[in-house]
Design goal:
Helix content: 25-40%
Oligomer: single chain
Number of helices: 8
Largest sheet: 4 strands, antiparallel
Shape: globular
Order of helices and strands: HEHHEEEHEHEHHH
Strand content: 5-15%
Distance between the termini: 41 Å
Length: 203
């Protein structure tokens, strides 16, 4: 609501395909939405109806009003909220309006008092948007730092792949051969405290 009231967000009624197409490319500027100049009152009314479940999936989205000519594609009016009518495992059917990761990331860090938000390198370009949202909302700004992810050879570190192995009964969670997570290291006689300290010391 704050960003809508300050004219920094608007409800866009283009389809997702149109939004994607009008975003442009790294060599071509984007095209502004025909709904970009809706009044604050109209945007607030539509957003409240989106929250109330009066529209179908993809019928409207809430976008940040930044710069469709920005050389950084992520800053070309990114989507903040989308409509999704799906049963949520915790909220049930109470919500049909969900925020996008980039919109919530900085706010979550700020609310939780995170001092340093540490992300892997694929989020480096997202920092501009992270900082923009925090600046527009006028909230505490954590310091964001990106680093190269740690990869070990001849082992499985991906939580998704480990879960798949356990679900398919290749192994139990603590006995996956070559697993370098602490519970598996325990089984191989490696003290988690020692392995953790050596890993931290080498970063």
């Amino acid at each position: 609501m704050q960003l809508i009231n300050s004219g920094k967000a608007y409800v866009d009624s283009q389809s997702i395909e149109e939004i994607r197409r009008n975003r442009g490319t790294s060599a071509e500027v984007g095209v502004e939405s025909p709904f970009r100049d809706r009044s604050v009152e109209e945007n607030l009314d539509l957003f409240q109806k989106m929250r109330a479940g009066e529209f179908g999936d993809g019928e409207h989205v809430l976008r940040a009003r930044i710069d469709m000519a920005s050389p950084h594609l992520i800053m070309r009016d990114p989507i903040m909220y989308r409509i999704r009518h799906a049963h949520h495992y915790r909220q049930g059917d109470d919500w049909c309006l969900y925020p996008m990761y980039d919109f919530t990331h900085g706010q979550s860090d700020s609310i939780e008092g995170v001092t340093h938000s540490i992300c892997t390198l694929e989020f480096e370009n997202n920092r501009r948007l992270y900082d923009w949202y925090i600046e527009q909302l006028g909230i505490y700004a954590p310091e964001q730092t990106e680093f190269a992810r740690l990869n070990l050879t001849h082992t499985v570190m991906s939580k998704r792949r480990l879960l798949q192995m356990v679900n398919e009964e290749w192994s139990s969670a603590g006995t996956i051969p070559g697993c370098r997570r602490s519970v598996a290291c325990d089984g191989e006689g490696t003290l988690p405290k020692r392995s953790g300290n050596s890993a931290i010391g080498s970063v």
